[in-house]
Target: 2-oxoglutarate-dependent ethylene/succinate-forming enzyme
Amino acid sequence: MTGPDSARGGLPVIDMASLFDASRVTERARVAREIEQACRDSGFFYVTGHGVSGEVLARLERESHRFFALPRVAKEAIAMSMGGVAWRGWFPLGGELTSGRPDRKEGLYLGTELGSEHPRVKAGWPLHGANLWPAEVPELRAAVLDYVAACTRAAHALMEGMALSLGLDADYFRRHYTADPTVLFRIFHYPAEPQHEEVSWGVGEHTDYGLLTLLAQDDNGGLQVKTPRGWVEVPPLPGTLVCNIGDMLDRMTGGWYRSTPHRVKNVSGKDRLSFPLFFDPDFAAEVHPLPRGAGADVDDDRARRWDGASVHAFQGTYGDYLLGKVSKVFPELVRRVWERAPTALPEETPRGPLPR
Ligand SMILES: O=C(O)CCC(=O)C(=O)O
Ligand SMILES: [Fe+2]
Model:
């Protein structure tokens, strides 16, 4: 354990090392109970034993700082509008509207690196394709790919713990949803704000969309979570990642595990970097309630949710759900990208409620 509870908003620190080794049965059962407790409480916890080395993270942080320090024109060369339907690239400060308002952050959108020969890329599936890399910081590519690989391994292992915590076989999620997961990765830069002024939200209140999010953050803090005890800070703890569950786990468990609202305000007076990796179901997977929903009846949460939309009412693939969300947070970009997209995307391409 790392310091008093109050220093981390009462969020637990869970050592997940045993989730990489199926033979450690007793320890895995204990970790599963810790995960259940955390998910029944705030849906947020810290993990250690995640296998992402300090060197890999330090390199990612260093190269990311170099990227954001580039002149605007260099970043514009890989703007999201260049990424087309693959939905990759840089967006400027204020370019994303998380809860209907421009966020005080800039960022780089990345994801699983797929070449033009991949069948889904060939078929023009949205959010599938190649990443856009800055020519001026070529080292960023390897730094990102190494981090994403390590973090994705951790996410697969955590989903085993998640399955055990719900009384399911350890490989339940891999068998049904994550053999080919949707992995989205973002690097955010929240600029230093003058400390005498009222600081706006870096990211407005929201829940994450998929299964789980693994977040690395630098030393500057600013993430806040809405727990049953009210909003609490999620301060950085060296060597940990922050894990939280998303809407799809909320939906699958009938609300037994909740995707919890959170938000970010950078009041540190310094530039803040964060690195969320979203580990989500296969884009083409239909997301259903679990066979043995761990006890709870479906609770229609529409009235309490940040966007007034219930995750339980939704029908369709994860891709449909994701595209619906993306079109809310990037309305202008969606319009422009879809206007320019090939006129006839194949009929079977998931497109969600986007303009056709
Ligand atoms: O930057 C952070 O700490 C969190 C970002 C976040 O919540 C998100 O991207 O969904
Ligand atoms: Fe989030």
Remarks:
- The chain has a mean pLDDT of 88.
- Residues 186, 188, 203, 208, 215, 217, 223, 262, 264, 274, 276 surround 2-oxoglutaric acid (ligand 1) (CB under 6 Å).
